[in-house]
Amino acid sequence: MEEAALAALDTEALIRDASAFVRIPSVTGDERAALEWLAAQAAAYGLEADLHQHDLAALRAHPEHPGEEAPREQLWGLTVRLPGSRPGRIALNGHVDVVSPGTEPWRLGPWSGAVEDGRLHGRGSVDMKGPVISALHALVALREVDHPEVVLMAVPSEEDGGLGTFAALQRDARFDAALIPEPTGLRVVCAQAGALTFKGEIRGVATHAAERLAGHSAIDRYVKVHAALARHEQAVNADVAHPLMRELELPYPLVVGQLRAGEWSSMVPDQLVFEGRLGVPVGVAPETAREELQRVVDAALDDDLPRCVLTWEGGAFASGTTDPEHPWVKTVQDALAAETGRAPLAGVPWGADLRLFTARGIPTVMVGTRGIELAHAVDENVSADELATIARTMIRAIARS
């Protein structure tokens, strides 16, 4: 059965569809056109496609709403179902939203979908519209063989917090296992860090630069905070509990990505605003991580000036993990090893939708192509052969379930 499904995989059609899919812009907040195309393509292959609009107001009011960063007025989702011929229910999950192309010029254009020297080019080729097409063609190849029910969840809004998968699981979470083909470097990932975005405002006392001692620079106050943040990052990463995360050079990064301060070069600045991203260790609740960082900032600003109270905006990625000894992990490992000769386990320092499945007790892994460093980068591209490898890995894992 497994070999029959592998033989049925049409790799040329896979790459052709991936190229067409990349050519449809789907920056976070504007994914509908891409989902409509994907629904039509799935239906043309004889699969059950359900394109639906979520109740955005209800999701935003939910106490576990995962946050958002991109503006949107609608939230559309798509499920593609392959009915099963034996017990079991497996989810394949992938996001169709992509980050913006940026301001630097692309050699072939961000929406080219060009295939050149065996690589598919364009925004989303690796992260992760190309892998979504790999999942679609895995379903197509499995149609005529024995398998459990499989549902491909093509979701929006992953890049800014995971609202698409959160909404999809509100509709249907009856899964025995899940696989997400994020770009993992041909490794089986069963642990992911969390990621929280924060913002702080530091106040100072303004005065003329010539009399700066009469004032108090908000920048000088921030320098103390910045040093404290660096020490906190070092402390969090000094004794990493999860064995897969321990193997990473920096499992839980803390970075300040934006600073805004001052109004005039000859004026002591009375305000500085900083924004950043906090890595959350596996097993640590987001609220605990928030409280710890606030204590770090409070301790750094041990003066009589106003306190800096951090605010937490945008996407909120909790951490997530699946037991490396779980049978589903072993099944996916065996499937990947049959394709590549090896299937190392790994943890990753970035947030993903894995944690939304594991929070519901659904064993979940991520396995995908190389090229995570190209995601969100200019000239994003992916190996066409590796897209086929991931499709074949999904076929094997499902057939063996």
TrEMBL record:
Gene3D superfamilies: 3.30.70.360, Zn peptidases
Peptidase M20 dimerisation domain ranges (all copies): 191-302
Stored SUPFAM superfamilies: Bacterial exopeptidase dimerisation domain, Zn-dependent exopeptidases
Molecular function terms from GO: hydrolase activity; metal ion binding
Keywords: Hydrolase, Metal-binding, Zinc
Cited InterPro entries: ArgE/DapE_CS, Bact_exopeptidase_dim_dom, Peptidase_M20, Peptidase_M20_dimer, Peptidase_M20A
Coiled coil: none
Cofactor field: Zn(2+)
Protein name according to UniProt: M20/M25/M40 family metallo-hydrolase
Organism expressing this protein natively: Solirubrobacter phytolaccae
